[in-house]
Specification:
The protein is α/β, with parallel strands linked by helices. It has 25 helices and 24 strands. The protein has five domains: 112 residues, RelE-like (YaeB-like fold), CATH 3.30.2310; 98 residues, no CATH class; 198 residues, 3-Layer(aba) Sandwich (Rossmann fold); 75 residues, no CATH class; 147 residues, P-loop containing nucleotide triphosphate hydrolases (Rossmann fold). The relative contact order is 0.08. It binds adenosine-5'-triphosphate.
């Protein structure tokens, strides 16, 4: 007899107190060792239509609901006695007659009953909020009527639900989706978003999203140890495809914020590491993000701190390490501030921001070594045109800057990457067999060349996860021109697990549906759906900073009152200069803050505050993006540094993307605030306030 774990069991487990969780886990282990459950007290749930639901005693109060047949035992749910019985009495466990996938189905009549207690409405309008006063009757639109109950069933919607859905309003249907099995809910949400769902995945892949067979005790232990990290156990069939795929060249997975690209990267790394002959690099653009990847990889590995054959590091962290390994010395690094300072000295009458950007975005990454090279360089990625005369004028300044660095034995990051690239390009032995890059949209030219030199040519060696819409640091460039061609081996994830439907729908308005890279590869973000609903996000325009402090404090207070812990609330601002505005909110609420700079993590009891550039990798139940004033988002100092319209366009685009990155850290609640005149990006949002 095989033992399976249902996702509903893990979700229910996270809601129990520690003592009850312990009892439930112990019973789960006993059941796995002996699924027939001899010596355990099994009680058939007679109140359920499902004849194979049984309750198993974990302690005096806690019951596990299992589904038991001759060949399989599925742990379905766990709760206090009465609640567990109630759960089971409202569900059946059945194979969908069309798709063939096993489902735990909530009975439509039972849901109606519960909803009807709140709102006595005709059947079709069960989920509608009661109207405050009768208004002239508007014709109700049933968005799924044209799809038809029959087609809905092709996607795994149970028949009686399908019949209800085709006579449900938009709001009802969205709510109803929350009660449906995953694949059915997904199809309904796609139809409601005006799309047509892809053909249903094979029953086995669909089932794997919610039932996991646990053959060994350590698998069960790992799943029960981190029950809230459902991503470690259940993958969407599309995620699974990217994890398992064998490629014959570099491959890339895309998807808007929260669609599980990092989850794919992590699973793929672990999967590849099972083969003894591999040596895998899992990498991303910053040290804090690399630490977060490391932690998640350990969770995925069942809490084991070391995952054999997987190295996790930031691009630059790794480059420094490899440099030291090769030379015996630490590289002496030179940063942007020093470059600005020196260029100001070398060319006191010119524009230091422009010169520094030109050096960092063009000269250094493209390894321009002479005026001839500079004259001929196609200004890939940096769109502003610079005439030959200007190039001739400024070239000697860059040369002087470089000479100074050489004399001091200093390296910029780009030069460090180039050094390590050259070192490994000439060698047959490479440090890695496979390289998996997260946040690949922020790879620069030197980083990509460096990474490509670290693994031997061919097959599966390079896998990228990223979202063009979240590029915030680097200029775009042609990957193909560097020999990295992902065309034909790329795809997009469309199920958002992080952000509510309402928040995602609003934030999608900030970016175009289709984004294209410089090789013409299009990432189509349309048709993305979220797996849960939440409050509509708000954008508020305040009269002054005091007004903003008051309004944001009131909003945060309402979230705290609703049971959201302070550390689950993030206050994000454009840059450090505006952190005082987040601090003012905390002061008004008599709370302390944890500034999420560097490696700092949210701390229990403290409001989390941070800046947009460091928001990647974070997520909160509630986020307030504050200080979105017209001259802050986009940041005026950046705009002023632009020399041409092309530069300005690039800045507007990345600032918009920065706002998108910050706001998509919100899971359930989102507030955007600014002092009048507010950010022009607010114009693209349709909000309640
Ligand atoms: N299969 C899954 N089951 C449950 N939760 C999932 C699944 N896949 C992803 N998630 C959750 O969705 C959230 C977003 O996942 P992840 O960070 O991988 O997305 P992403 O696409 O990399 O986001 P971003 O672009 O913002 O970096 C996380 O909380 C993750 O745990």
């Amino acid at each position: 007899m095989n033992t399976f774990l249902a996702d509903t069991f893990l979700t229910a487990l996270t809601k129990l107190d520690n003592q009850s969780q312990k009892a439930a886990k112990l019973t789960a282990f006993e059941l796995q060792t002996d699924p027939t459950g001899k010596g355990k007290s099994f009680h058939r749930i007679t109140a359920s239509k499902e004849k194979d639901f049984w309750s198993v005693r974990a302690n005096r109060d806690i019951r596990i609901i299992v589904h038991k047949t001759a060949d399989r035992l599925t742990l379905c749910y766990v709760d206090h006695h009465d609640d567990a019985y109630d759960w089971a009495s409202r569900r059946v466990f059945e194979r969908h007659p069309r798709t063939g996938a096993l489902q735990i189905v909530e009975l439509v009549e039972q849901v109606r009953e519960v909803m009807a207690k709140v709102d006595v409405a005709p059947a079709a309008d069960l989920f509608v909020e009661p109207a405050p006063a009768p208004e002239p009757a508007k014709p109700t639109i049933f968005p799924l009527a044209k799809v038809g109950a029959d087609s809905l069933q092709d996607y795994g919607v149970p028949q009686d639900w399908a019949e209800l859905l085709v006579v449900s309003s938009m709001a009802d249907a969205l709510q109803a989706a929350d009660h449906l099995p995953g694949e059915a809910a997904e199809a309904v949400r796609v139809f409601l978003a005006g799309g047509v769902p892809e053909a249903p995945a094979p029953a086995q892949a669909v089932e794997a999203q919610r039932f996991r067979m646990v053959e060994h005790r350590d698998e069960l232990e790992a799943a029960l140890e981190f029950p809230w990290d459902r991503w470690t156990v259940f993958l969407h069939p599309t995620q699974r495809q990217f994890v398992d795929a064998e490629y014959n060249g570099p491959a890339r997975v895309a998807g808007s914020a929260g669609t599980g690209k990092t989850v794919v990267a992590l699973h793929r790394a672990l999967q590849l590491s099972r083969d003894d002959s591999t040596n895998i690099l899992l990498t991303t653009f910053s040290d804090p993000l690399a630490s977060a990847l490391k932690e998640k990889l350990n969770i995925l590995n069942g809490g084991e701190a070391l995952v054999p054959r997987v190295k996790v590091s930031s691009f630059v962290g790794l480059a420094k390490e490899l440099y030291e390994l090769a030379t015996g010395n630490r590289p002496r690094m030179v940063g942007r501030d020093a470059i600005i300072r020196r260029l100001k000295k070398i060319a006191p009458d010119d524009n230091p921001t422009f010169l520094t950007n030109e050096f960092e975005d063009v000269i250094d990454p493209w390894r321009v070594d002479s005026l001839e090279d500079y004259r001929e360089l196609k200004r890939t990625g940096r769109r502003s045109r610079i005439g030959q005369r200007r190039r001739e004028l400024i070239w000697p300044w860059f040369q002087a800057l470089r000479d100074g660095m050489k004399a001091r034995h200093e390296l910029t990051e780009a030069q460090l990457f180039a050094w390590v690239e050259d070192y490994y390009s000439g060698r047959e032995r490479k440090p890695f067999t496979h390289i998996i890059v997260d946040e690949a949209q922020d790879l620069g030219v030197p980083e990509l060349r460096f990474l490509a030199a670290l693994a031997p040519e061919g097959g599966n060696r390079l896998f990228f996860a990223g979202d063009l819409g979240q590029r915030i640091f680097k200029l775009p460039f042609s990957w193909k021109s560097l020999g990295i061609d992902v065309r034909g081996r790329s795809g997009t994830l469309k199920v958002n697990y992080r952000t509510s439907h309402q928040i995602r729908e609003q934030l999608d308005r900030l970016l175009p549906e289709k984004l294209s890279d410089l090789d013409g590869l299009v990432e189509d973000r349309s048709g993305t759906i979220s797996v849960f609903n939440g409050p509509v996000p708000e954008a508020i325009s305040c009269t002054d900073q005091i007004d903003e402090t008051k309004q944001v404090s009131a909003w945060v207070k309402a979230r705290l009152d609703a049971g959201i812990a302070p550390e689950e609330i993030g206050l994000i601002v454009r840059s450090e200069g505006q952190l005082t505005r987040a601090q003012a909110v905390a002061d008004m609420l008599n709370l302390s803050v944890q500034a999420l700079l560097g490696d700092a993590r949210p701390q229990a009891g403290l409001l989390s505050v941070g800046v947009m550039q460091l928001a990647k990798g974070l997520e909160f139940r509630a986020v307030a993006v504050m200080a979105c004033d017209a001259e802050i988002v986009p940041l005026e100092s950046r705009v002023e540094g632009a020399e041409t319209q092309d530069d300005l366009d690039e800045i507007w685009q990345t600032e918009r993307q920065l706002l998108y990155v910050a706001a998509t850290r919100a899971r359930e609640n989102l507030l955007l605030s600014g002092v009048l005149p507010v950010s022009e990006y607010f114009d693209d949002l349709v909000t309640e306030t």
